[in-house]
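Running this now, will post back.
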Amino acid sequence: MKLLLHCCCGPCAVLVAERLRDEGREVVLWFFNPNIHPRDELERREAVMEEACEALDLPAIPAGPAMSTAEFLLHLARFGGRRCRACYELRLRMAAEEAARQGCDAISTTLLISPYQQLDAIAEIGRAVAEKAGVEFVFRDLRGEYPQSCERARELGLYRQNYCGCLFSALERAERRARRAMGKTLSRSRA
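Update: finished.
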């Protein structure tokens, strides 16, 4: 079975691709993440994805189409406040369509290894878009292997990001950091 693996980043791709290959699948990697913000972060992740492909000795299909932040946000707006579901739908739909174009039998995604993602939503959306494109969605709950995935990425010297990549998660991360900094400042001023 030829499987297109939608890759959110190089570090997550490593272990997921190895597991799927161990199952006897012919795996090709495809990086598509119009959600990543800012642009230099996207470029860095694209470069790390290339490093992961080399480390795994796996072929890659050229990255998915570029999308401006405005286009991405307009796509999310159609889903109301369910931004993660909208993002999953976009990326998995595009992966299923690309898999069909490339003659692949199935798709899967590296999102399945992250304990920070909504696995039920990914499974539901993945199955629906795959069926529509005429391919299979291969679901594996790999969250328990996330620590090994991080360790494997470190062994390979791959850059690991500390947020999912979207503008919203970057803002949430900045807000958490600001709250922690404010808490430390307040603690010192009271002492």
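The two ends are 64 Å apart (CA to CA). More later if anyone needs it.
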